[in-house]
Amino acid sequence: DVKVTQSSRYLVKRTGEKVFLECVQDMDHENMFWYRQDPGLGLRLIYFSYDVKMKEKGDIPEGYSVSREKKERFSLILESASTNQTSMYLCASSFSGMGNTEAFFGQGTRLTVV
Amino acid sequence: AQSVTQLDSQVPVFEEAPVELRCNYSSSVSVYLFWYVQYPNQGLQLLLKYLSGSTLVKGINGFEAEFNKSQTSFHLRKPSVHISDTAEYFCAVSDQDNNNDMRFGAGTRLTVKP
């Protein structure tokens, strides 16, 4: 079974803290994604990585950065957490080539910034 | 970048009635299309996918979707719904010309009433 593992299910942080969300996949996928899920807005792409050290901004990158030093690990960083970053964060991975590019998701991290 | 529009944010239906959840996308020529389902308090699960070939795609739990290239649509259908189909449904498009960058719609909440 493909497994995408996010380091925390629930996280509570204070405003202004630097926050790290970690994601690891075990399927040797080239692509990894960070999405943010909010009611009525669906899944919005924050950042996308198609290879080690490669990244592309998604639709809402402001206030976030990412790191991909190894193929299996993709980290999302909130440089200075704010209350409007309270949300559910979903990590996903997929193949990048032709063919089956289904994305596999982690269980999510519910982040609350107080 | 590609975008996805799910035309209905909420769809209430009675049990055993047919249902159609609508999805339109704007993108480059080469795309893969997906429907995911999220049951209450659970992660995202793939319902079905269109990669190539027949435009009518069958998925799990009796769902099917039709790819219409000229209308850039990928509507999801089920001829007879059950209470257990109550969930949020997300349409997604993957751009083959950009390493399969994947974007999602805002979601449609399907509520099946007895």
Level-1 CATH class name of chain A: Mainly Beta
Q: Strand share of the residues of chain A?
A: over 45%
Major β-sheet annotation of chain B:
6 strands, mixed
Quaternary assembly = heterodimer
How confident overall, as mean pLDDT of chain A? 93
For the record, the CATH architecture of chain A stands as Sandwich
What can be said about the biggest beta sheet of chain A? 7 strands, mixed
Please identify the structural class of chain B as seen in this structure.
mainly beta
Query: How many separate helices of chain B?
Result: 0
Question: Would you report the number of β strands of chain A?
Answer: 11
Poorly predicted spans of chain A: none
Roughly what is the average pLDDT of chain B, rounded to an integer? 92
What name goes with the CATH superfamily of chain A?
A: Immunoglobulins
Total separate domains of chain B: 1
List its traits.
heterodimer; A: 114 residues; mainly beta; Immunoglobulin-like; seven-stranded mixed β-sheet; four-stranded antiparallel β-sheet; 11 strands; 0% helix; B: 114 residues; six-stranded mixed β-sheet; globular
How is this structure best described in words?
The complex is a heterodimer of chains A (114) and B (114). Chain A has 114 residues and is mostly beta strands. Chain A contains no helices and eleven strands. In chain A, strands 2, 4, 5, 6, 9, 10 and 11 form a seven-stranded mixed beta sheet that branches. The N and C termini of chain A lie far apart (36 Å). The mean pLDDT of chain A is 93. With 114 residues, chain B is an all-beta fold. Chain B has one domain: Immunoglobulins (Immunoglobulin-like). Chain B is 0% helix and 56% strand. In chain B, strands 2, 5, 6, 10, 11 and 12 form a six-stranded mixed beta sheet that branches. In chain B, strands 3-9-8-7 form a four-stranded antiparallel beta sheet, with no helix packed on it. In chain B, strand 8 and strand 9 form a beta hairpin. Chain B is globular, with a radius of gyration of 14 Å. The termini of chain B are far apart. At the A-B interface, strand 4, strand 5 and strand 9 of A face strand 6, strand 10 and strand 11 of B.
